[in-house]
Amino acid sequence: MSEQMAGFLHWTLTFDATGDALGDLPEILVRELEGAALTDLIVFSHGWNNSTAKAQELYKSFFEELRKVMTQRAALTPAGVKVGTVGVIWPSMRWPDEAAPARVGGAASLAESPSDEALVKDLLDAYDAPEQQQAIGELAVLLKERPRDMQALARFQHLMETLVAQPDPASALEDNGEVALLTDQPEVVFRRLAAAAPSPRRQGGAGVGDVFHSLWNGAKEALRQTTYWEMKNRAGVVGQRGLGPVITRIHSAHPTLRVHLVGHSFGARLVSFALSGLPTEFAGAGSPVKSLMLLQGAFSHFAFAEKLPFDRDRAGALAGMSSRVDGPIMVSHSLLDTAVGKLYPLSSIAGRSDAAGLDEALYRWGAMGHDGAQAVPADNLRLGPVGQAYPFGAGRFVNLDGNRIITKGGPPSGAHSDIVHPEIAWALMAGARLTTAA
């Protein structure tokens, strides 16, 4: 059923990990749109927020900011425009020791520091298969006890594999580097990850220089990366098999309704892969998707490339999908977002030992939210103040430099969740043509 959120008529769409919608929510949405008389529908997907309540809090904050800017610029709103919103809920998670999303006008709240055992057990809410629940219990014990034993570390790596489903059908060469976490030697993987892992409290009296102390720190970070990998896989599945078909149903029932997709973090991957779940005839002006906004996207910056720079015979998983957006594809990025600038590529290069090629490896495994869409024709612009004009075009990428705006947040994710700003709301309005000033 619809509700009011920030003055917008708002619906919630909930999907399971396989992309199936829960209940009859899509049918309700399609039916209620009939009497809503909307011109535009903004569909927003969260990233790795760990509960429905956290996701709803993000949507409320973001849409309140959007409403504020729309009210300030009401005189420039095209006549007859009426906007509705949808919040997508899908099974994701955020580790409790990471900073919570920033609130409007303030920094992200600092995360608590639960024990390693408690951190691992928190994963139980995101994995419901019996074998996964059993593996999580054993992982928690191993990380708590930290045996000085290489076989125990190998066992830890083996258990991590239980938490990763088969890669989704949309996976591609540019976006599956995390396999090194499970296939390379555990000592190599954990040693590399330990160098970049947050420094935890000492456990079991281990000294800072103790090799096993360092390796278990790396094992903890490897587990974090493994869960990110699975959340990224889920995002692609939910987008392609879940959201894409719902958009098709909406367009079939309401062919004049303009749809705008917004995604944060792995949610940016979700809404992008929704394009691959649309019929092939949804191209150019025939597509209901009139804009796509990727906020600090946690997926490969080569996803839309027609040719991969490191393999010219291969294309990105979403090559050609930009044609299914009859409007701009806006990609925010910030160097202060360490989740996508450091943690995202970390798992992909964890098994590599060529330190001299680190910069090249970081580019090879880079994410959208770090430097924008790569290997595609794109305009590179600074995320500007409310009122700034943007040269947006249909199916064209615009990389929005947010280094002056997307700045707040603590370790390990940095400014990854600092996305509620008037400048971002205005860019969305401009890209969606909700203002005549753009």
Can you characterise this structure?
The protein has about 450 residues and is α/β, with parallel strands linked by helices. Helix content is about 35%, strand content about 10%. The longest helix has about 45 residues, at about 210-255. The model is unreliable at about 105-110 and about 200-210 (pLDDT under 50). It is built from 13 helices and nine strands. The two termini are about 35 Å apart. The radius of gyration is 21 Å and the shape is globular. It folds into two domains: about 5-110 and about 235-340 and about 370-430, Rossmann fold (3-Layer(aba) Sandwich), CATH 3.40.50; about 115-230, no CATH class. A nine-stranded mixed beta sheet has the order 1-2-4-3-5-6-7-9-8, with helices on both faces. The protein has helices at about 25-35, 50-70, 115-120, 130-145, 150-160, 180-185, 185-195, 210-255, 265-275, 340-350, 360-365, 370, 420-430; strands at about 5, 10-15, 40-45, 85-90, 260-265, 290-295, 330-335, 380, 395-400. Strand 5, helix 9 (about 265-275) and strand 6 (about 290-295) form a beta-alpha-beta unit.
